[in-house]
Amino acid sequence: MDELLAGTDGDWRWRIHLERPAETELVLRMENVVPPSVAGGTAPLVYDAMRAVLHRAVTDR
Q1: Assuming Cys at both sites, which of 15, 16, 21, 38 could form a disulfide with 5, CB separation 3.0 to 4.6 Å?
Q2: pTM as predicted
Q3: Is residue 52 within 8 Å of 21, Cβ to Cβ?
Q4: What is the mean pLDDT of each run of 10 residues along the chain (61 residues)?
Q5: Which residue(s) pair with 12 in the sheet?
Q6: Distance CA 39, CA 54 (A)
Q7: Measured on CA atoms in the order 54, 55, 60, 61, is the torsion positive or negative?
Q8: Own/partner pairs for 46-49, CB < 8 Å, 24+ apart?
Q9: How far apart are the C-alpha atoms of 38 and 61, rounded to whole Å?
Q10: pLDDT given at position 49
Q11: In what order do the strands lie in the sheet with 12-19?
């Protein structure tokens, strides 16, 4: 499992991991992430980071 991104924003801590259990599988694990209903703060940063991780995972294959 690769830790691709980690960070803090105020009281929130978050990490994004990418797992490749098999050649055709891709698993993205996010820990301590604010829910999408949270306006402002960490939510936009984390979801932008998640999109970047998914893009990297797909284009690196």
Answers
A1: 16
A2: 0.37
A3: no
A4: 54 62 67 57 67 72 56
A5: 9
A6: 22
A7: positive
A8: 46/14, 46/16, 49/5, 49/7, 49/16
A9: 33
A10: 73
A11: 2-9, 12-19, 27-31
Pull the structure tokens for residue 33.
């992430």
| Whole-number Å distance between alpha carbons of 31 and 15 | 5
What does R_g of the chain's alpha carbons equal in angstroms?
12
Residue type, 19: E
Q: Are strands 27-31 and 12-19 parallel, antiparallel or unpaired?
A: antiparallel
3-state secondary structure the chain: CEEEEEEEECCEEEEEEEECCCCCCCEEEEECCCCCCCCCCHHHHHHHHHHHHHHHHHHCC
Encoded amino acid at 38, one letter: V
